[in-house]
């Protein structure tokens, strides 16, 4: 029988009596383990060997484990200091023993929490007693640590479990493959196997000479183990943002842009938010210190907005009857929502006057001094959008959301009436979390009031919304904590694997 040379080598080195590890075979026949693995699988396909797989635990010291292997376990050091202080005769103040032990920082707690557990003594109302019969040289955890530090192997036992629980060792699993000759393999070997010269690489010479016609080409081993590669990729939130933009552009929207830091005038006053609204005074906004105020605001616009606040709009209008101060409106802050962009576009300060029908959006950051938790960050991406047309109703608003969310496979959004100073009616949007089944708020929306639109010079109807990109992504990918995708606590594995593909 003729076989490729590496298969012949593996077959000849293999045994029918006991499985031989790929690593050992590779060392013996002086070929890379990947080649031997590939050859072994091919021989297995031909029925000449069996490839046996076992998982093996590999135990490695962590950095902390290595440190203790060198300096001694904290509880052993505490015991030794306790003996020195005479705590085997009578209890000694814990502070004193710790002081002489040389233990520092978190090691003190570690020492104390293991001291009694391992029978080194007891701790009672601040005093430490040492058991004279305890023997650190019989400490199984210390012994295992020492063996591992010296490169030795330890059996899986309670001591090893403890070390793993204490994060002093890391236990990883790997697959170990061995090769065992089958009966057919033995028969072939006895009948004699020969190396067939195989061509691994086709060369221009072989093509020119026609030699390729008779050559035996090596097979590609498509099952060979390959290393895992985790190259840089677009962050899943960025992917989501790109996708949202694509969907909105597909629905006929144009993108808005504008400043992250803006005057309260555009963030609040243009939205008919009264200046004494609690959110404007106590709302944890990020105010700017330098510069503190915007230089200029369009005079006529300021005048119209002020009048709406004081007197309302229309013949039966009614304003807030509360103070309105231009200086207050000029204060700069990081925008708490991107509706500031909407105010800029609707009022025409962003460029040309907008004529109906028009559709605009942005997917940009908004900043709020919230308390961090699983669903809140200090900054988040808001999907802002609005539609200007002659006659708009709640049906148009809901239909737009259904259409938008369905592009992400979300078909069960719910609406709840709410209140915003600038919209009437207003609706919060909710979606169901795919993992927890909880209803989570995903956005806020409504139809802008005349008190907002008239001063901005808009005569048509405008429906608008602010949706949270992170929440949309939660519904799409099922992650449960916003901190999984942002910041130092992020879930790297999730970020490596997550894809927003539709
Ligand atoms: N600005 C609102 C928020 O941040 C969202 C919104 C925008 C609501 C436009 C209605 C109209 O929650």
From TrEMBL:
> Quaternary structure per UniProt?
Tetramer of two alpha and two beta subunits.
EC class of the enzyme, as a word: ligase
Tell me, which GO biological process terms does this entry list? phenylalanyl-tRNA aminoacylation
Q: Pfam family of this protein, just one?
A: tRNA-synt_2d
Enzyme Commission code: 6.1.1.20
Key words, A-Z: Aminoacyl-tRNA synthetase, ATP-binding, Cytoplasm, Ligase, Magnesium, Metal-binding, Nucleotide-binding, Protein biosynthesis
Q: Could you cite one Gene Ontology molecular function of this protein?
A: ATP binding
**Which cofactor(s) does the record list?**
Mg(2+)
The record's family statement is: Belongs to the class-II aminoacyl-tRNA synthetase family. Phe-tRNA synthetase alpha subunit type 2 subfamily.
Q: Which positions fall inside the Aminoacyl-transfer RNA synthetases class-II family profile domain?
A: 236-497
Give the highest taxon in the source lineage. Answer: Archaea
Q: Which gene encodes it?
A: pheS
Which GO cellular component terms, listed alphabetically, does the Swiss-Prot or TrEMBL entry include? cytoplasm
Protein name per the record = Phenylalanine--tRNA ligase alpha subunit
Tell me how the cofactor is bound. Binds 2 magnesium ions per tetramer.
Cited HAMAP family: Phe_tRNA_synth_alpha2
**At which positions is Mg(2+) bound?**
424
InterPro entries, from UniProt?
A: aa-tRNA-synth_II, aa-tRNA-synth_II/BPL/LPL, Phe-tRNA-synth_IIc_asu, Phe_tRNA_ligase_alpha_bac/arc, Phenylalanyl-tRNA_Synthase, WH-like_DNA-bd_sf, WH_DNA-bd_sf
Chain positions recorded as L-phenylalanine binding sites: 339, 382-384, 422, 448
Q: What is its main location?
A: cytoplasm
Q: Which reaction does it catalyse?
A: tRNA(Phe) + L-phenylalanine + ATP = L-phenylalanyl-tRNA(Phe) + AMP + diphosphate + H(+)
Subcellular localization(s) per the UniProt record: Cytoplasm
């Amino acid at each position: 029988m003729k076989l490729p040379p590496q298969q012949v080598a593996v077959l000849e080195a293999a045994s029918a009596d006991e499985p031989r590890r790929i690593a050992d075979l590779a060392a013996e026949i002086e070929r890379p383990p990947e080649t031997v693995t590939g050859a072994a699988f091919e021989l297995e396909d031909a029925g000449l060997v069996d490839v046996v797989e076992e998982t093996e635990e590999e135990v490695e010291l962590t950095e902390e484990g290595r440190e203790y292997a060198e300096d001694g376990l904290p509880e052993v050091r505490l015991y030794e200091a306790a003996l020195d202080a005479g705590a085997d005769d009578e209890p000694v103040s814990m502070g004193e023993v710790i002081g002489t032990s040389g233990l520092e920082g978190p090691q003190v707690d570690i020492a104390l929490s293991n001291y009694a557990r391992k029978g080194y003594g007891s701790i009672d109302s601040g005093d430490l007693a040492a058991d004279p019969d305890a023997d650190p040289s019989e400490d199984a955890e210390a012994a295992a640590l020492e063996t591992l530090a010296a490169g030795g192997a330890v059996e899986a036992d309670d001591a090893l479990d403890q070390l793993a629980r204490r994060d002093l060792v890391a236990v990883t699993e790997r697959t170990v493959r061995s090769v065992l000759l089958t009966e057919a393999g033995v028969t072939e070997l006895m009948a004699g196997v020969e190396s067939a010269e195989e061509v691994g690489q086709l060369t221009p010479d072989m093509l020119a000479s026609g030699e390729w016609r008779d050559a035996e080409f090596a097979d590609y081993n498509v099952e060979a183990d390959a290393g895992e590669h985790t190259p840089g990729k677009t962050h899943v939130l960025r992917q989501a943002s790109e996708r949202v933009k694509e969907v909105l552009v597909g629905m006929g929207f144009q993108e808005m842009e504008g400043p992250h830091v803006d005057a309260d005038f555009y963030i609040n006053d243009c939205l008919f938010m009264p200046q004494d609204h609690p959110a404007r005074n106590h709302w944890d906004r990020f105010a700017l210190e330098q510069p503190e105020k915007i230089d200029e605001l369009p005079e006529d616009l300021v005048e119209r907005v002020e009048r709406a606040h004081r007197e309302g709009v229309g013949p039966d209008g009614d304003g807030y009857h509360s103070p309105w101060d231009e200086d207050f409106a000029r204060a700069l802050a990081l925008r708490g929502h991107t509706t500031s962009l909407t105010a800029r576009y609707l009022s025409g300060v962003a460029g040309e006057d907008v004529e109906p029908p028009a559709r605009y959006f942005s997917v940009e950051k908004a900043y709020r001094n919230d308390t961090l938790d699983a669903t809140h960050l200090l900054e988040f991406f808001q999907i802002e959008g609005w539609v200007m047309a002659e006659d708009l109703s709640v049906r148009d608003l809901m239909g737009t959301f259904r259409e938008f969310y369905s592009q992400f496979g979300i078909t069960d959004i719910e609406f709840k009436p709410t209140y915003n100073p600038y919209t009437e009616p207003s609706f919060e949007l909710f979606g169901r979390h795919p993992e927890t089944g909880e209803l989570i708020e995903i956005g806020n929306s409504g139809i802008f009031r005349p008190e907002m639109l008239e001063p901005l010079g808009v005569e048509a109807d405008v429906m608008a919304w602010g949706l949270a990109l992170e929440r949309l992504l939660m519904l799409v990918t099922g992650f449960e904590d916003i901190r999984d995708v942002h910041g130092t606590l992020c879930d790297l594995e999730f970020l490596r694997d997550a894809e927003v593909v539709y």
